[in-house]
From TrEMBL:
Membrane topology, from the record: Multi-pass membrane protein
GO cellular component, one term: mitochondrial inner membrane
Family per similarity comment: Belongs to the sideroflexin family.
Originating organism: Rousettus aegyptiacus (Egyptian fruit bat)
Protein name according to UniProt: Sideroflexin-3
GO biological process, one term: serine import into mitochondrion
Length: 262
């Protein structure tokens, strides 16, 4: 077996992003929770493989599959711009287990004010970590800006949740189940733009097809952040808007009426 060629473009995803299947395979790999179990030594080994390959040095015996595996492990743990290791819960591989846990708790403990406040705070704290960890490396955010974004988003989420909760007291129970989703949607509209406000001020890097940096664009930053806000809200729909309808239907069945949740 010959040495691995240096013309493999690991700057781009492995699969064709113009197709749904290609995008699905890419994002399933990026968000693979198993990457959270990798040791520091394994992460460093993957980083060395990727950095060496980009520098024109091929690790002896390296196969193409191993190279792509190292690339995705590297991407899952290190910031793409700064190269710094991202805090564990801020990594894309933590999105599935963290969001499943938090979303489940918000949908379960939505009836009492203290639990509503607590889980909205937990959710926004997690969102703040994710947004900060995955910000553009060319637009650093100050501690003051970070604090403002975090407090504003948390306050907005809690206020929305409590306000809607009070309005739904005399409405059907199903309506109350949608309060967590409404609070999350409102908070995303606050959290993301504030957390990435530096990008809105100075813009984000714009490159040509060859990867050469052409400058910074505020317009691109606005468009990108708007798309992130919309996508975050849409991503919450399957987990926070569909289960309430299912649970409301199931709770009317006899097998759940025997021991209803209090």
């Amino acid at each position: 077996m010959g040495e691995l060629p240096l013309d493999i473009n690991i700057q781009e995803p492995r699969w064709d992003q113009s197709t749904f299947l290609g995008r699905a395979r890419h994002f399933f790999t990026v968000t693979d929770p198993r990457n959270l179990l990798l040791s520091g030594a394994q992460l460093e080994a993957s980083r060395n493989i990727v950095q060496n390959y980009r520098a024109g040095v091929v690790t002896p015996g390296l196969t193409e599959d191993q190279l792509w595996r190292a690339k995705y492990v590297y991407d899952s743990a290190f910031h793409p711009d700064t190269g710094e290791k991202v805090v564990l819960i801020g990594r894309m591989s933590a999105q599935v287990p963290m969001n499943m846990t938090i979303t489940g708790c918000m949908l379960t403990f939505y009836r009492k004010t203290p639990t509503v406040v607590f889980w909205q705070w937990v959710n926004q704290s997690f969102n703040a970590v994710v947004n900060y960890s995955n910000r553009s490396g060319d637009a650093p955010i100050t501690v003051r800006q970070l604090g403002t974004a975090y407090v504003s988003a948390t306050t907005g989420a809690v206020a929305t949740a409590l306000g809607l909760k009070s309005l739904t007291k005399h409405l059907p129970p199903l309506v109350g189940r949608f309060v967590p989703f409404a609070a999350v949607a409102a908070a995303n509209c606050i959290n993301i733009p504030l957390m990435r406000q530096r990008e809105l001020q100075v813009g984000i890097p714009v490159t040509d097809e060859a990867g050469q940096r052409l400058g910074h664009s505020v317009t691109a930053a606005k468009q990108g952040i708007f798309q992130v806000v919309i996508s975050r809200i849409c991503m919450a729909i399957p987990a926070m808007a569909i289960p309430p309808v299912i649970m409301d239907t199931l709770e009317k069945k006899d097998f759940l009426k025997v021991a209803p949740y209090k």
